[in-house]
Design a protein that fits this description.
HTH-type_TetR-like_transc_reg, 8 helices, transcription regulation, Homeodomain-like_sf, TetR/AcrR family transcriptional regulator, HTH_TetR
Length: 200
């Protein structure tokens, strides 16, 4: 392909991707409120002030849009934790940085995490979601592996099990914050500090 045509195609692709991201940011607000099971493309269009035609132009169907939304959010979630870990030196700082990043995300982004757990459950029944769920979980396992190594642990054999345990605690605490059994921030920090202290 000639260089000029290639550049034009790349610009067009970048513009399309940027528009998809803008649509996804609007759609996330509707999805956070309604959840996967209760949300149609029409609901998303109405709640995000977008036309149904616009959604169909950029996304094949509801599943395509939801997968995209959750993917871009979880990528940002992992980047935030990675950034926090970059500043940490030694076991105690790694535990503190990781715990703080997790608690901050529960308080700031609990509803989008709820959507993630929703589609992860749906992936047991709908193979459409399985590739993206596997991809996201691999990213999450990798960030646990990074923390494990930064804390000075040499044997990463138990990383996947530790991820599963951490994920279970995270989901439980996040679910409580949404319901009527919310805990204060200090209590959540203490819980994660204690858990990660056992890991590292």
């Amino acid at each position: 392909m000639p260089a000029k045509l290639k550049q034009r195609a790349e610009r067009k692709s970048a513009k399309r991707e940027e528009k998809k991201r803008q649509i996804a940011q609007s759609a996330i607000e509707a999805l956070k409120e309604l959840g996967y099971a209760n949300t149609s493309l029409r609901d998303i269009a109405e709640k995000s002030d977008l036309s149904l035609g616009m959604l169909h132009y950029y996304f094949e169907d509801r599943s395509d849009l939801i997968i995209y939304c959750v993917s871009i959010y979880k990528q940002a979630f992992v980047r935030e934790i990675a950034s926090a870990l970059t500043q940490a030196e030694g076991r105690d700082q790694v535990i503190a940085a990781f715990s703080n990043a997790l608690v901050t995300s529960i308080f700031d982004d609990g509803m989008i995490h709820r959507l993630w757990y929703d589609i992860r459950t749906q992936a047991m029944f709908d193979e459409t979601f399985r590739p993206v769920v596997a991809e996201i979980e691999e990213m999450l396992i990798d960030i646990v592996r990074t923390a494990y190594e930064k804390a000075g642990q040499a044997d990463p054999a138990q990383v996947e099990i530790r991820y599963a345990l951490l994920d279970g605690v995270f989901r439980l605490l996040m679910q409580r914050q949404i319901g009527n059994t919310a805990r204060p921030r200090a209590e959540l920090l203490a819980t994660f500090n204690a858990l990660l202290g056992q890991f590292f």
